[in-house]
Amino acid sequence: MNFIDSTRTTTPSLTFTPTGTIPRDGLHLLHGTLPGEVVCTENLTPFLKLLPCKGKSGISGLFDGHKLFDASWQTMSVDVRPACADDNPEVCNVEIEQTVDMVLDLDRSKRARDNPIPRPVPAAELICDESKPYHSGDFCYPIGASRSQTWSIEDVFGRTIPSSCPLGRDDAQTVCIKVPDSMEVLPSSDAVETRAPDGKSRCYSLHPNQPFNLVVPAQHSSSNSLEAQVVHLERTIIGHGQERGGLRSILTNPSQTDTANFVYFETLPWFMRPFLHTMKTKISYGSEPAVEVPLSDIIKDIFYRPAIDRRRGTQLELVLSVPPASTVTLVYEFEKAILRYTEYPPDANRGFNVAPAIVRVLNRNESIMVPPVYLRTTNLLLPLPTPDFSMPYNVIILTSTVIALAFGNIFNVIIRRFVTLEEVPRRNIKALLLGRVAALKSKLGIKKTEKVA
């Protein structure tokens, strides 16, 4: 979280609203996003340090970096809001809400315990699709496991919840699960169960000194159909080259009768410089080709804060109105800035992560107070011009080689003594023969012996 600096922090004006009971005079709403980071088990340590029990008890006792970062999808968030007492508004505290969202694959989570060394599934345990025409004793088209299978907290996370956090409230409901009343759930014997009036969830209060485990047996359950989505969103980077590019957002309103009104929020890094004068909007109905329309037909309001190099990013908020059964394409161009060589990450050739866009669906009936609905796109990967980082090392090696060659020749000239041929002492034939004999003896290992009288 210490990587969320001023370049990744914005002050939303239309997308988010401040929460808390403290007066808002002189306060600012800040929103920071870290689109990606190097996966490391120690990344969870700063998050756990904010908890009162530091991951030693409570539901935070399930946190394990290996399990969290091995999930199919995961995200973490920290919300900070002021909270003042009702009877004394001058007494205010800071309330921190930490959230971890994970999407786990049950088979993959159990694999570390049941099959730590990957091995093929035995033939007797294969589930075959018998509807295939080639199905026989020797041929099997395997299908996945059934949706209903037994699982427990210990199976998924490799451990149970140690106990309730002693610093929490006594009436706090530690573990909640969203299941209908007809589904069987087997909690620990000492847990106190509380069911919701709507019959869609139940919560459990943990014992302060007893571990807690939750088992959900395999059983048939009917899944309710999801509510119709208000808007479909797709966001991609277009263009080619190392100098410029484009950003395209495709927004689809699936409703056949209602107009979709929402706020489109983007946070762009400072090295991604958008050109708003190139913004274009196109609309299409069904299979008809897209037709360019004026911006005022789709964009009802705009808030734009330009970036400052190495100080803050670009903030863009658009209030959009998409007609029923239509698809709106929003496109604008941007320029890629040149970074200093010290600002590139170790994996610079991979690209730079761009934070996802956020869509806030506006309430159609303002008289009814409902919590806001937010949608988020996936991260984008922006390629930037990358210098040849090996060039300095090549220059150093070449320079060192040239210096070594020059130094050897110069040193040889300095220490060597040059004389004329006339000054060299003449050697007779006897001296030459004795020298040859001495050299031959040294090669043969013959040592000179002396007689002692």
UniProtKB/TrEMBL annotation:
Which keywords does this Swiss-Prot/TrEMBL entry list? Membrane, Transmembrane, Transmembrane helix
- One cellular component GO annotation, for this chain's record? GPI-anchor transamidase complex
The superkingdom of the source organism is Eukaryota
Name the InterPro entries on file. Answer: PIG-T (IPR007245)
What parts of the sequence cross the membrane?
393-415
Cross-referenced Pfam families: Gpi16
Gene Ontology annotations of biological process type = attachment of GPI anchor to protein
Q: Which PANTHER family match?
A: GPI TRANSAMIDASE COMPONENT PIG-T (PTHR12959:SF11), GPI TRANSAMIDASE COMPONENT PIG-T-RELATED (PTHR12959)
| Record-given protein name | GPI transamidase component GPI16
